[in-house]
User: What shape does this take?
Amino acid sequence: MCIRIAVVDDLSPIAIWDPDEVSILVDRGTHPHDLIRELHAILTIDLGAPHIPGAGLTCFCGDPLQLPTELTLVPAIPGAPTL
Ligand SMILES: [Zn+2]
Assistant: This one.
């Protein structure tokens, strides 16, 4: 089962892992740049997902993880999210 990314309102951390739902909850108001960095840290450090340079965010199985479109619609990210 792959990790989902769920957008919620009024989360105090930028992002938090929810093991019951196999989801990472992210705060709606977060700038995508900060969000990607935080998600990457959770995935690779807390969840043991592979770190594939240049591949962006990955699930623990190695599949790419897509950010919800409501987050990527925020302006000022040219192209695909990378680190
Ligand atoms: Zn997966």
